[in-house]
Specification:
Layout (H helix, E strand, L loop, with lengths): L7 E5 L31 E4 L3 E5 L2 H22 L6 E5 L4 H9 L4 E5 L2 H23 L5 H7 L3 H7 L1 H18 L17 H9 L4 H15 L14 H4 L7 H14 L5 E5 L1 H4 L10 H20 L4 H10 L4 H9 L8 H16 L7
Parallel strand pairs: 3-4, 4-5
Antiparallel strand pairs: 1-6, 2-3
Helix pairs in contact: 1-6, 3-4, 6-7, 7-12, 8-12
Bound molecules: zinc ion (ZN).
Protein backbone atom coordinates (compact mmCIF):
# COMPACT_ATOMS: atom_id res chain seq x y z
CA UNK A 1 0.00 0.00 0.00
CA UNK A 2 2.04 2.86 -1.27
CA UNK A 3 0.09 5.60 0.42
CA UNK A 4 0.60 3.98 3.77
CA UNK A 5 4.01 5.55 3.48
CA UNK A 6 2.40 8.77 4.36
CA UNK A 7 0.57 7.20 7.23
CA UNK A 8 1.90 9.10 10.14
CA UNK A 9 1.18 8.32 13.67
CA UNK A 10 1.36 11.17 16.06
CA UNK A 11 1.64 10.35 19.69
CA UNK A 12 0.92 13.13 22.08
CA UNK A 13 0.70 12.91 25.79
CA UNK A 14 -1.06 15.24 28.11
CA UNK A 15 1.27 14.41 30.97
CA UNK A 16 2.64 17.68 32.31
CA UNK A 17 6.24 18.53 31.62
CA UNK A 18 6.64 20.15 35.01
CA UNK A 19 8.95 18.78 37.71
CA UNK A 20 11.21 17.09 35.21
CA UNK A 21 14.25 18.55 36.95
CA UNK A 22 13.32 16.43 39.97
CA UNK A 23 13.45 13.20 38.02
CA UNK A 24 16.40 11.06 39.03
CA UNK A 25 19.13 10.41 36.49
CA UNK A 26 18.37 7.41 34.28
CA UNK A 27 19.56 4.08 35.48
CA UNK A 28 22.19 2.30 33.45
CA UNK A 29 20.43 -0.05 31.09
CA UNK A 30 21.85 -3.06 32.90
CA UNK A 31 19.57 -2.31 35.85
CA UNK A 32 16.51 -2.10 33.69
CA UNK A 33 14.84 -5.36 34.39
CA UNK A 34 11.23 -6.36 34.19
CA UNK A 35 11.38 -7.42 37.82
CA UNK A 36 12.14 -3.83 38.85
CA UNK A 37 8.90 -2.41 37.44
CA UNK A 38 5.43 -3.73 38.16
CA UNK A 39 2.51 -2.41 36.13
CA UNK A 40 -0.71 -4.22 37.13
CA UNK A 41 -2.67 -3.39 33.95
CA UNK A 42 0.19 -4.35 31.66
CA UNK A 43 1.20 -7.69 33.11
CA UNK A 44 3.57 -8.83 30.37
CA UNK A 45 7.05 -7.31 30.23
CA UNK A 46 9.80 -8.18 27.77
CA UNK A 47 13.30 -6.75 28.23
CA UNK A 48 15.38 -5.76 25.22
CA UNK A 49 19.08 -4.83 25.53
CA UNK A 50 18.13 -1.21 26.24
CA UNK A 51 14.46 -1.09 27.14
CA UNK A 52 11.39 -2.63 28.67
CA UNK A 53 8.32 -3.43 26.59
CA UNK A 54 5.05 -3.63 28.54
CA UNK A 55 1.85 -4.98 27.03
CA UNK A 56 -1.44 -6.55 28.02
CA UNK A 57 -0.44 -9.88 26.48
CA UNK A 58 2.60 -11.87 25.40
CA UNK A 59 1.95 -11.60 21.64
CA UNK A 60 1.85 -7.79 21.72
CA UNK A 61 4.91 -7.61 23.96
CA UNK A 62 7.09 -9.92 21.86
CA UNK A 63 6.01 -8.43 18.54
CA UNK A 64 6.83 -4.89 19.62
CA UNK A 65 10.02 -5.94 21.38
CA UNK A 66 11.30 -7.28 18.07
CA UNK A 67 10.55 -3.94 16.39
CA UNK A 68 12.25 -2.07 19.24
CA UNK A 69 15.37 -4.28 19.21
CA UNK A 70 15.84 -3.62 15.50
CA UNK A 71 15.48 0.09 16.20
CA UNK A 72 18.09 -0.04 18.96
CA UNK A 73 20.64 -1.44 16.50
CA UNK A 74 19.84 1.28 13.96
CA UNK A 75 20.20 3.98 16.59
CA UNK A 76 23.64 2.71 17.50
CA UNK A 77 24.62 2.62 13.83
CA UNK A 78 23.50 6.16 13.07
CA UNK A 79 24.05 7.93 16.38
CA UNK A 80 27.14 6.11 17.56
CA UNK A 81 25.76 5.38 20.99
CA UNK A 82 23.28 3.18 22.78
CA UNK A 83 19.71 4.33 23.08
CA UNK A 84 18.87 5.81 26.45
CA UNK A 85 17.03 3.43 28.78
CA UNK A 86 13.41 3.49 27.73
CA UNK A 87 10.00 1.92 28.11
CA UNK A 88 7.50 1.12 25.37
CA UNK A 89 3.98 0.98 26.74
CA UNK A 90 1.53 -0.95 24.59
CA UNK A 91 -1.98 -0.16 25.68
CA UNK A 92 -2.50 2.92 27.75
CA UNK A 93 -0.01 5.20 29.40
CA UNK A 94 -1.95 6.33 32.44
CA UNK A 95 -0.59 8.80 35.00
CA UNK A 96 0.06 6.01 37.51
CA UNK A 97 2.11 4.08 34.93
CA UNK A 98 4.13 7.21 34.25
CA UNK A 99 4.71 7.70 37.95
CA UNK A 100 5.90 4.13 38.39
CA UNK A 101 8.28 4.46 35.44
CA UNK A 102 9.69 7.73 36.73
CA UNK A 103 10.28 6.17 40.12
CA UNK A 104 12.25 3.46 38.32
CA UNK A 105 14.33 6.15 36.61
CA UNK A 106 12.88 5.61 33.13
CA UNK A 107 12.39 8.96 31.45
CA UNK A 108 12.20 7.95 27.81
CA UNK A 109 8.72 6.54 27.39
CA UNK A 110 6.68 5.90 24.27
CA UNK A 111 2.99 5.10 24.57
CA UNK A 112 1.74 2.90 21.78
CA UNK A 113 -1.43 1.09 20.88
CA UNK A 114 -2.40 -2.52 20.57
CA UNK A 115 -3.29 -4.09 17.25
CA UNK A 116 -6.97 -3.99 18.25
CA UNK A 117 -6.77 -0.30 19.10
CA UNK A 118 -5.02 0.34 15.83
CA UNK A 119 -7.74 -1.42 13.85
CA UNK A 120 -10.44 0.51 15.69
CA UNK A 121 -8.67 3.83 15.16
CA UNK A 122 -8.27 3.11 11.48
CA UNK A 123 -11.90 2.10 11.08
CA UNK A 124 -12.94 5.31 12.80
CA UNK A 125 -10.68 7.35 10.52
CA UNK A 126 -12.18 5.68 7.47
CA UNK A 127 -15.68 6.29 8.76
CA UNK A 128 -15.04 9.98 9.41
CA UNK A 129 -13.39 10.46 6.04
CA UNK A 130 -16.35 8.79 4.35
CA UNK A 131 -18.73 11.11 6.17
CA UNK A 132 -16.73 14.16 5.19
CA UNK A 133 -16.62 13.08 1.56
CA UNK A 134 -20.30 12.29 1.45
CA UNK A 135 -21.06 15.68 2.92
CA UNK A 136 -18.84 17.42 0.40
CA UNK A 137 -20.14 15.43 -2.56
CA UNK A 138 -23.84 15.66 -1.80
CA UNK A 139 -26.50 13.02 -1.27
CA UNK A 140 -26.28 11.44 -4.73
CA UNK A 141 -22.65 10.54 -4.44
CA UNK A 142 -21.31 7.04 -4.10
CA UNK A 143 -18.16 8.30 -2.33
CA UNK A 144 -19.27 6.87 0.98
CA UNK A 145 -19.31 3.40 -0.48
CA UNK A 146 -15.95 3.94 -2.10
CA UNK A 147 -14.39 4.99 1.18
CA UNK A 148 -15.86 2.04 3.03
CA UNK A 149 -14.21 -0.33 0.59
CA UNK A 150 -10.87 0.91 1.84
CA UNK A 151 -11.30 -0.43 5.36
CA UNK A 152 -9.26 -3.59 4.61
CA UNK A 153 -6.24 -1.30 4.28
CA UNK A 154 -6.11 -1.37 8.08
CA UNK A 155 -4.42 -4.73 7.80
CA UNK A 156 -1.73 -3.18 5.65
CA UNK A 157 -1.20 -0.45 8.18
CA UNK A 158 -0.60 -3.01 10.91
CA UNK A 159 2.13 -4.50 8.75
CA UNK A 160 3.86 -1.14 8.92
CA UNK A 161 4.53 -1.35 12.63
CA UNK A 162 8.01 -2.77 11.98
CA UNK A 163 8.74 0.67 10.55
CA UNK A 164 6.43 2.89 12.56
CA UNK A 165 7.27 1.67 16.07
CA UNK A 166 11.04 2.18 15.71
CA UNK A 167 10.29 5.50 13.97
CA UNK A 168 8.36 6.79 16.96
CA UNK A 169 10.96 5.41 19.37
CA UNK A 170 13.58 7.31 17.36
CA UNK A 171 11.95 10.63 18.29
CA UNK A 172 12.08 9.73 21.97
CA UNK A 173 15.62 8.32 21.84
CA UNK A 174 17.11 11.32 20.02
CA UNK A 175 15.81 13.76 22.58
CA UNK A 176 16.78 11.73 25.62
CA UNK A 177 20.19 10.83 24.21
CA UNK A 178 21.24 14.34 23.16
CA UNK A 179 18.92 16.68 25.07
CA UNK A 180 18.49 14.62 28.24
CA UNK A 181 15.78 15.72 30.60
CA UNK A 182 14.17 18.15 28.18
CA UNK A 183 11.28 15.88 27.33
CA UNK A 184 9.06 16.54 24.38
CA UNK A 185 8.83 20.24 23.82
CA UNK A 186 5.12 20.93 23.87
CA UNK A 187 5.28 24.53 22.76
CA UNK A 188 8.11 24.75 20.27
CA UNK A 189 9.23 22.27 17.72
CA UNK A 190 7.16 19.41 16.51
CA UNK A 191 8.91 16.65 18.39
CA UNK A 192 11.43 18.13 20.73
CA UNK A 193 14.22 20.65 21.15
CA UNK A 194 16.08 19.44 18.07
CA UNK A 195 15.62 21.18 14.73
CA UNK A 196 12.55 19.67 13.09
CA UNK A 197 14.48 18.20 10.15
CA UNK A 198 16.89 16.40 12.50
CA UNK A 199 14.12 15.24 14.78
CA UNK A 200 12.22 13.70 11.88
CA UNK A 201 15.33 12.37 10.18
CA UNK A 202 16.37 10.56 13.37
CA UNK A 203 13.00 8.82 13.37
CA UNK A 204 13.17 7.99 9.66
CA UNK A 205 16.61 6.43 10.19
CA UNK A 206 15.01 3.93 12.57
CA UNK A 207 12.58 2.56 9.96
CA UNK A 208 12.89 -0.93 8.54
CA UNK A 209 14.23 -1.85 5.11
CA UNK A 210 10.86 -1.95 3.41
CA UNK A 211 9.85 1.45 4.71
CA UNK A 212 13.23 2.88 3.77
CA UNK A 213 13.05 1.51 0.24
CA UNK A 214 9.57 2.93 -0.24
CA UNK A 215 10.61 6.37 0.95
CA UNK A 216 13.51 6.33 -1.51
CA UNK A 217 11.21 5.29 -4.34
CA UNK A 218 8.76 8.03 -3.50
CA UNK A 219 11.48 10.63 -3.22
CA UNK A 220 12.67 9.68 -6.68
CA UNK A 221 9.16 10.37 -8.00
CA UNK A 222 9.05 13.67 -6.17
CA UNK A 223 12.45 14.80 -7.41
CA UNK A 224 11.81 13.81 -11.00
CA UNK A 225 8.39 15.43 -11.03
CA UNK A 226 6.46 12.19 -11.38
CA UNK A 227 4.84 12.17 -7.95
CA UNK A 228 1.07 12.23 -8.17
CA UNK A 229 -1.74 12.78 -5.74
CA UNK A 230 -1.15 14.40 -2.39
CA UNK A 231 2.64 14.30 -2.54
CA UNK A 232 2.81 15.98 -5.92
CA UNK A 233 5.28 18.83 -5.67
CA UNK A 234 9.01 19.39 -5.44
CA UNK A 235 11.65 18.95 -2.74
CA UNK A 236 12.42 22.13 -0.83
CA UNK A 237 15.68 23.99 -1.39
CA UNK A 238 18.00 22.91 1.45
CA UNK A 239 17.93 26.21 3.38
CA UNK A 240 14.14 25.91 3.57
CA UNK A 241 14.12 22.21 4.42
CA UNK A 242 16.66 22.73 7.19
CA UNK A 243 14.89 25.65 8.82
CA UNK A 244 11.20 25.01 8.32
CA UNK A 245 8.77 23.93 10.97
CA UNK A 246 7.50 20.38 10.67
CA UNK A 247 4.51 20.55 8.32
CA UNK A 248 2.49 18.45 10.76
CA UNK A 249 3.20 20.77 13.67
CA UNK A 250 -0.30 22.23 13.74
CA UNK A 251 -1.91 18.81 13.90
CA UNK A 252 0.41 17.88 16.74
CA UNK A 253 -0.58 20.98 18.69
CA UNK A 254 -4.24 20.26 18.06
CA UNK A 255 -3.82 16.77 19.47
CA UNK A 256 -1.99 18.06 22.51
CA UNK A 257 -4.67 20.64 23.18
CA UNK A 258 -7.33 17.98 22.87
CA UNK A 259 -5.46 15.64 25.19
CA UNK A 260 -4.95 18.42 27.72
CA UNK A 261 -8.62 19.35 27.54
CA UNK A 262 -9.66 15.77 28.16
CA UNK A 263 -7.84 15.91 31.49
CA UNK A 264 -7.27 12.19 31.37
CA UNK A 265 -3.53 12.34 30.97
CA UNK A 266 -3.90 9.41 28.64
CA UNK A 267 -1.99 9.46 25.37
CA UNK A 268 -3.87 10.49 22.30
CA UNK A 269 -2.75 8.57 19.32
CA UNK A 270 -4.17 9.49 15.99
CA UNK A 271 -3.44 8.02 12.65
CA UNK A 272 -3.04 10.76 10.13
CA UNK A 273 -3.74 8.66 7.11
CA UNK A 274 -4.71 9.98 3.75
CA UNK A 275 -8.31 9.41 4.74
CA UNK A 276 -8.02 11.55 7.86
CA UNK A 277 -6.12 14.25 6.09
CA UNK A 278 -8.78 14.37 3.42
CA UNK A 279 -10.85 16.18 6.00
CA UNK A 280 -8.38 18.96 6.75
CA UNK A 281 -10.14 21.41 4.50
CA UNK A 282 -9.62 23.37 1.30
CA UNK A 283 -6.35 25.16 0.71
CA UNK A 284 -4.36 22.86 3.00
CA UNK A 285 -1.30 21.29 1.38
CA UNK A 286 -1.80 17.77 2.67
CA UNK A 287 1.31 16.57 0.86
CA UNK A 288 3.67 18.89 2.74
CA UNK A 289 4.06 16.45 5.63
CA UNK A 290 4.77 13.38 3.48
CA UNK A 291 7.19 15.34 1.29
CA UNK A 292 9.10 16.45 4.40
CA UNK A 293 9.63 12.75 5.29
CA UNK A 294 10.77 11.83 1.80
CA UNK A 295 13.29 14.66 1.71
CA UNK A 296 14.47 13.68 5.20
CA UNK A 297 15.27 10.20 3.92
CA UNK A 298 17.10 11.51 0.87
CA UNK A 299 19.04 14.11 2.84
CA UNK A 300 20.09 11.43 5.35
CA UNK A 301 21.38 9.30 2.46
CA UNK A 302 23.26 12.32 1.11
CA UNK A 303 24.92 12.98 4.48
CA UNK A 304 25.93 9.31 4.85
CA UNK A 305 27.22 9.04 1.28
CA UNK A 306 29.21 12.25 1.32
CA UNK A 307 30.73 11.70 4.77
CA UNK A 308 31.21 7.96 4.36
CA UNK A 309 29.95 7.73 7.92
CA UNK A 310 26.68 6.09 8.94
CA UNK A 311 26.99 7.81 12.34
CA UNK A 312 27.41 11.31 10.93
CA UNK A 313 24.20 12.18 12.79
CA UNK A 314 26.04 11.77 16.10
CA UNK A 315 28.36 14.62 15.13
CA UNK A 316 25.49 16.83 14.01
CA UNK A 317 23.25 16.12 17.01
CA UNK A 318 26.12 16.69 19.42
CA UNK A 319 26.88 20.09 17.87
CA UNK A 320 23.24 21.14 17.77
CA UNK A 321 22.68 20.01 21.35
CA UNK A 322 25.57 22.28 22.37
CA UNK A 323 23.71 25.18 20.81
CA UNK A 324 25.37 25.40 17.41
CA UNK A 325 23.30 25.91 14.29
CA UNK A 326 23.66 23.51 11.38
CA UNK A 327 25.41 26.31 9.47
CA UNK A 328 27.93 26.71 12.30
CA UNK A 329 28.54 22.99 12.31
CA UNK A 330 29.12 23.07 8.55
CA UNK A 331 31.58 25.95 8.92
CA UNK A 332 33.52 24.04 11.57
CA UNK A 333 33.31 20.46 10.30
CA UNK A 334 31.51 20.37 6.98
CA UNK A 335 34.53 20.05 4.74
CA UNK A 336 36.10 17.35 6.91
CA UNK A 337 32.94 15.31 6.27
CA UNK A 338 32.77 15.85 2.53
CA UNK A 339 30.16 18.58 2.86
CA UNK A 340 30.41 22.28 2.19
CA UNK A 341 31.54 24.79 4.76
CA UNK A 342 28.35 26.75 4.18
CA UNK A 343 24.75 26.04 3.26
CA UNK A 344 25.37 27.41 -0.22
CA UNK A 345 28.27 25.03 -0.83
CA UNK A 346 26.35 22.12 0.67
CA UNK A 347 23.31 22.85 -1.44
CA UNK A 348 25.49 22.71 -4.57
CA UNK A 349 26.86 19.31 -3.46
CA UNK A 350 23.32 18.14 -2.70
CA UNK A 351 22.10 19.02 -6.19
CA UNK A 352 25.08 17.28 -7.76
CA UNK A 353 24.46 14.22 -5.61
CA UNK A 354 20.76 14.19 -6.52
CA UNK A 355 21.53 14.38 -10.20
CA UNK A 356 24.09 11.58 -9.99
CA UNK A 357 21.65 9.37 -8.15
CA UNK A 358 18.32 10.21 -9.74
CA UNK A 359 19.08 12.03 -12.98
CA UNK A 360 18.00 15.51 -13.92
CA UNK A 361 15.65 17.31 -11.59
CA UNK A 362 12.16 18.12 -12.73
CA UNK A 363 11.61 21.75 -13.67
CA UNK A 364 11.15 23.73 -10.48
CA UNK A 365 13.01 21.23 -8.30
ZN1 LIG B 1 8.18 11.16 12.97
Amino acid sequence: MRLALSALILAASAAPAASQTLIPAPLPAASLTCAAVHLPKLPVCVATPRGLIFAPDRVEAERNAAFARAGEARFKRHFGRDTPPYALIIGQLTPDVRTTLRAAGIKAVLPWITADQQRAAYAEAVRRAAEARAKAAGPDSNKTAQAAVRAPQAAGLLDRNASIVPHELGHVWLIEAFWPGSGLDRAGHYGGPAADWLDETAAILMEDEQGTAERRDQFRLLYTGRARGAIQGRPDPLPIFLSKDHPMKNQQQMLQARAAASGSGAPQIVMMTETVRAGTGPGVDIGAGPRFYLQGRAFADFLIDRSGKAAIFADIATALARGASFEQWLAAEGQAHGLGSSLTETEALWRTWLQARFGPAAPGA
